[in-house]
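Comment thread on ticket #2218

A.B. wrote:
> Attaching the input chain for the structure job we discussed in standup.
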Amino acid sequence: RRLRTTRSMIAVAATLAGTAHLLDMDDAIVSGPASLAGTTAPFRLHDLPNCVVSLRPRANTVTLNVADVAQVDDETGLGHHVLQATASLQPLWVASGGPNGKSYVEVDGIDEFLKAAAFTWNQPEHVFVVVMPSASNDTSGTLWDGNATNGMRCYISGINTLLYAGAGGGMALTKNGWRRIAAVYNGASSQMYTDQGNSGAFNAGANNSGGLTLGSVGGAGDYDDCRISEFVGFSAEVTGNALTLANWYLATEYSL
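C.D. wrote:
> Ran it. Output below, let me know if you need it in another format.
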């Protein structure tokens, strides 16, 4: 009988040598980095320490209003679900056709968004997101933010994708397809790294997230017509073997 991977198992596995064999979300065996030991599955990013929110809009984690999303469940067990009670503001759920065939939510860039109730989430904050930003070069289209505006914002500005939490920086990012973005909000040590490269360190400011908003600034507005297939956040920077495992999982699960 297979046992579910636990945080302690991951912590131990990441320090051992050997060939890893993890099961993906569909329970198919896949090979992991040779520096990681074998673990049992299904493995999810919230199996790593310090995870405060884990959102994957799958058939068993979404509450639908016909075809639109009323809620995406937080899989950490902490109850940080993202919601939209107003029917006209609910984004679309698409069951397949995302990266590696996965499902996703699609906000319209006009007025749709999802938002969690406020919760404690302070810097350093580390997020991993599988997203297709708007193909247009928006001037302020927001992919995600914290509970209040500019608490933990990521937005489009021309050819650049920027982080902002009282100050800002980022990098140019091709927006005509699915992207894998990781962002660290940690004052002057903030950075963004993607499947297209690394921004290097910059000052994103000292604001704290205090929650999560998808597709809009925390106070509603500056919307982006983006698609999101996974969003996972941590209350500490993910480093070392844990970061290797996180990046391998995202690359394997989404073919990015």
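A.B. wrote:
> Thanks. Noting for the ticket: The first strand starts at residue 21 and ends at 23.
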